[in-house]
Automatic annotation (TrEMBL):
CDD domains: NAT_SF (cd04301). It comes from the Bacteria. It holds the Pfam family Acetyltransf_CG. PANTHER family: BSR4717 PROTEIN, PROTEIN NATD1. It comes from Saccharopolyspora erythraea (Streptomyces erythraeus). This is GNAT family N-acetyltransferase. Gene3D superfamilies: 3.40.630.30. InterPro entries: Acyl_CoA_acyltransferase (IPR016181), Gcn5-rel_NAT (IPR045057), GNAT_dom (IPR000182), GNAT_YJDJ (IPR031165). The lineage of its organism: Bacteria, Bacillati, Actinomycetota, Actinomycetes, Pseudonocardiales. Residues 1-97, 5-91 form the N-acetyltransferase domain.
Length: 100
């Protein structure tokens, strides 16, 4: 079972499975805004849905913390487009910038 953790020292959320980091989302936190910069899942873990689980956990964390989300990462941006229940996290006046 994979677990997702925030690793603020490295400014990234990580998903861990089989005792190792399977993937991560790099971020930059400024005040009440989190910019999601890059998502990566290791080749060995591709096709298992870990990227989606990771992004959902990151966005759920942002929601719980009351953060606005700027999805600079194309994977995160497309994931939000497919899951409109998370669109509210992206400030309305910034959505066009991300084609949302």
């Amino acid at each position: 079972m994979a677990e997702t953790v925030d690793n603020p020292g490295d400014a990234r959320f990580e998903i861990r499975g089989d005792g190792e980091t399977a993937g991560f989302v790099d971020y930059r936190l400024r005040g009440s805004t989190i910019s999601l910069l890059h998502t990566e899942v290791g080749d060995r873990f591709e096709g298992q849905g870990l990227g989606s689980r990771l992004v959902r956990a990151v966005l759920d964390s942002a929601r719980e913390r009351g953060l606005e989300v700027l999805p600079h990462c194309p994977f995160v941006r497309s994931w939000i487009a497919r899951h409109p229940e998370y669109l509210e996290l992206v400030p309305e006046d910034r959505r066009a910038e991300f084609d949302l």
